[in-house]
Amino acid sequence: MLTTPRISLADEVYQTLKVDLAEFVLVPGDRFTENEISERLQVSRTPVRQALMRLQAEGHVEVMFRSGWRVLPFDFVRFDQLYDLRILLETTAVRRICEDYALVDRGQLDALANHWLVPVAARSTDAAKVAEADEAFHCALVSAAGNAEMARVHRDVTERIRIIRRLDFTKRPRIDLTYEEHGKILRALQSKRAEQAILLLTAHIQTSQAEVRKITLHQVHEARRANQLSRG
User: Fold this and answer.
1) Are strands 61-63 and 69-71 parallel, antiparallel or unpaired?
2) Separation of alpha carbons 203 and 87, rounded Å
3) Rounded-to-integer distance, Cα 154 and Cα 139, Å
4) What is the pTM of this model?
5) Count H helices, E strands: the chain?
6) Going residue by residue through the chain (232 aa), what tens digit of pLDDT does each one get?
C-alpha cells in the first residue's frame, strides 16, 4: 500500500505514474484501465482517477470512451514551445551569472563543477542517473542566478518536458557529449564569458531538442525494453 504522511494518496499515485511515463513503463499508445493501475499500486480507484485526471490536464493521457485510458503520442509542437521558453530562461540566467558574479550562488556553481569537470574515467555511464544529473545541472544554473520566480517557472518547464527529454539519454554517445558540453559551459561561466556561455548553452539545448525529435515509436519501445532489462 502506498502511504505517506506528507502528501495525499492521489499525489503519490500521480508521482508514481509520472515516473512510469518518464521511464517508459508506460509509452505512447499504451492502453490501460483504472482497475489495472489500482491493482498494481494496491490502492483504490479514487486516487488513481484523480491522478489520471491531472495527467490528462497536462497532456500525457486521455480517457477512452468505455475502454479505459491511453498514453498520448508526443506533442512536438508543445514541446518545441517549452524548449523555446527553457532557452530564454537559461540564457537569461547565464548572462546574470556572468554580469553579477559577486551576487550569484557560487556554492551551486562549484558543486556543478565538481560533478561535471571530472576525468573521463570518473564519468557515470548510467543513463537514468545522467538524465537526473543533467536536469539538476540546468535547474542549478537558473537557481544560481538568484531570481526565485525565474527558477520556479524553469522548474515547471523542466517538469513538463521531463518525459521526452530523457529520451536523449538512451544512446551512450549522447551521455559523453553531455559531459563535454556541460564542461565547456561551466568553463565559460568561470571565466565570465557571457556571450560564449550563451552560445554554448543554446547549442547544447537545441542539439538535445533535435535528438529527441528523431525518436520513433519503435525506439521508445526499445527504450522501455532496455529499461526493463537493466532492472533485471
Assistant:
1) antiparallel
2) 10
3) 7
4) 0.79
5) 10, 3
6) 455 456 789 999 999 999 898 878 888 889 999 999 999 999 999 999 999 999 999 889 999 988 899 999 888 888 899 999 999 999 999 999 998 867 788 899 999 999 999 999 999 988 889 989 999 999 999 999 999 999 999 999 998 888 888 777 767 788 899 999 999 999 999 999 999 999 999 999 999 888 888 776 666 777 667 666 665 5
